[in-house]
Amino acid sequence: MQIRRKALGDFLRQARARVTPESLGLPAGSRRRTPGLRREEVAQLCGISATWYTWIEQGRNVSVSAAVLGRLASVLNLARAERHYLFSLAECADPDHGSDQILPLPPRLADCVRSITAPAYILDRCWNVLARNEPLLHLFDGWPDRDPSPNLLRYIFLDPAARSLVVDWEQRASRVVAEFRADAGTHADEPDVRAVLDELQQSSAVFAHWWIRHTVVDREGGLREFNHPADGILLYQQITFRLATRPDCKLVMLLENG
Hints:
Radius of gyration: 23 Å
Order of helices and strands: HHHHHHEEHHHHHHEEE
Number of strands: 5
Oligomer: single chain
CATH class of the largest domain: Alpha Beta
Helix content: 40-55%
């Protein structure tokens, strides 16, 4: 813990040194011995005492709220990765967790997915399908292309084809709900996630049944079994990767078992 506090103080000190007073409408002054903002200026702009901010930079055992961390990130003009690092060091959840949703997929990422030979697709935090490849389209017998707004949850719980394709559908459905709760629980009040939850709870008794039980599990992958209408029983190992440039998204691959 002491190492984290020291790293947090060092990081804030370096970030403070990069910010020019003029960029925040402060006078440059002629008596500044070091570049960047003074501690007192950062504290004032963040609405905290200079002593309290000094203790944070010194790595003392003080508690820093998410609101204060958010103001520090704004005043110090932290980039997205820097902001994430700041909250990680403080071991605090970022209240602005929904900002990643507005970012587009990195250039050529859809091309990368299409080049994968195994069934593969990308999901956002609502489990909307943002990219897929031809092997995935074949495995799911034409989905998601037949859906104008493809969403994996809606497919599993509202599309009758899923019950035929997914072996042991009832068991898989219960686990899917628990995985989604773990995936999107911190975003449950965001409008996009809320809309998906409301629709599924109203339209699927199975989803509603499992959602209110508050079971949470990781989307850890493992064996997936499908009963394909043309190819028969197919076994895959599911592997899931988080995207570094879009941590709210994940790449899912299904590798042939055996």
